[in-house]
Amino acid sequence: MQQAVTSRPPAASGAAPRRAARMLLRAGRLRCPNCGRGQIFITWLKLRYRCPACDLLLERGESDYFIGAYLLNLIIAELIVVALMVVLVLATWPAVPWTAVTWGIALLTIPAATLTYPYSRSLWLAIDLIFRPPEESDFSPGADVIEFPRGPRTERPPTRRPQ
């Protein structure tokens, strides 16, 4: 009887889930998902251009790369806000202060999105690295800051004053 041939060797079958979990945990600690050593954020809202430890390009070469991270941020932040709303409604049932709940939830939405922003960006980077592992071009040397070329200065045309 002939055995079925699998597409990957048996030794590597458990390695991929462990690697993915390790990358997601590193991202949850706001570290480079690739190496786990480099802090990938300069400030709470500003991502470095490259990992300071392994030199991985964090933008991955696409202008709209983090649109998925913004969606992930929206989902996570809204789930937190809805969970808080459910807890508040259950805690005050049957006399729920609906006006206070409505305004409180509306005011919590922006801080929740701000607090979850770096986590969603680093998790998105980890998810991308899981499905699209880094290539040699992702480690090419570069600076920490992207310099955009400046065009010629344009002056405003003079305005005429009414006479």
Task: Please summarize what this structure is.
This protein is 45% helix and 0% strand.
Write the SSE topology.
Layout: H1 15-28, H2 67-92, H3 98-131
What does this structure look like?
This protein has three helices and no strands. The protein is an all-alpha fold.
In total, the number of domains comes to: 1
| Gross geometry | flat
Strand content: under 5%
Structural class: mainly alpha
| Biggest pleated-sheet summary | none
How many helix segments?
Answer: 3
Mean pLDDT: 82
Listing every helix as H and every strand as E from the N terminus to the C terminus, the arrangement reads HHH
**Helix residue percentage:** 40-55%
Low-confidence stretches: 3-12, 143-149
What is the β-strand count? 0
The radius of gyration over CA amounts to: 23 Å
> Span between N and C termini?
101 Å
